[in-house]
Amino acid sequence: MNATVSWCGTMPLRAVDSTGRTTLFDTSAEFQGTDSASSPMEVVLEALASCSMMDVLSILRKKRRDIRSLVASVDAERAESHPKVFTSITIRYELSSSDCTPADLERAVALSMESYCSVAAMLRNGGCSISWSSTII
């Protein structure tokens, strides 16, 4: 696994992975950005939610649950001094399903967050606390 990030005189930065897929990174004008793409720290939150959601979807599909939609909303707190790492993150999962029980969803989320999600493991190993809740809508 590898990637290259390039700056060509202006923001956003362009990252290209080993298969040629592109991700843009930016920041606000206050820090000489154009605010046209997610910041690196926002991308970390997006990666956490995406990594965990892939696990949850896989687990629920293996249980043959009907999945109409799944949304994960992420809120984070950061340290006040540099490096401004994440100190705590809360994820709220909302599932629309005709046959999934709250216990099914909570078990899938717990398995992801405690055993399978690599992004969650890296953040926890860095000292960030991660909590979650799940709701069926």
Topology:
Elements: E1 3-6, E2 13-17, E3 22-25, H1 40-62, E4 69-78, E5 86-96, H2 102-116, H3 118-125, E6 129-136
Parallel strand pairs: 5-6
Antiparallel strand pairs: 1-2, 2-3, 4-5
Relevant terms:
3 helices, alpha+beta, single chain, GMP Synthetase, Chain A, domain 3, 137 residues, 3-stranded antiparallel beta sheet, 2 domains, 3-stranded mixed beta sheet
Detailed description of the structure:
- It is a single chain.
- This protein folds into 2 domains: 1-37; 40-136, 2-Layer Sandwich (GMP Synthetase, Chain A, domain 3), CATH 3.30.300.
- It is built from 3 helices and 6 strands, in the order βββαββααβ.
- With 137 residues, it is an alpha+beta fold.
Summarize the structure.
With 137 residues, the chain is of the alpha+beta class.
Q: Please, how many domains? A: 2
Second CATH tier, the architecture of the largest domain = 2-Layer Sandwich
User: Which structural class should the secondary elements be placed in?
Assistant: alpha+beta
Give the SSE string: EEEHEEHHE
Averaged pLDDT:
97
Output the strand order for the largest sheet: 1-2-3
> What is the CATH class of the largest domain?
Alpha Beta
Low-confidence stretches: none
> Whole-Å distance between the termini?
37 Å
Instruction: Work out the radius of gyration.
Output: 17 Å
Beta-strand level of the residues, as a percent range? 25-35%
Relative helix content:
25-40%
Broad shape:
globular
In DSSP terms, counting alpha (H) and pi (I) runs of 4 or more, how many helices? 3
Number of strands: 6
User: How does the major sheet shape up?
Assistant: 3 strands, antiparallel
Give the CATH H-level superfamily of the largest domain.
Answer: K homology (KH) domain
Q: Remind me, CATH topology of the largest domain?
A: GMP Synthetase, Chain A, domain 3
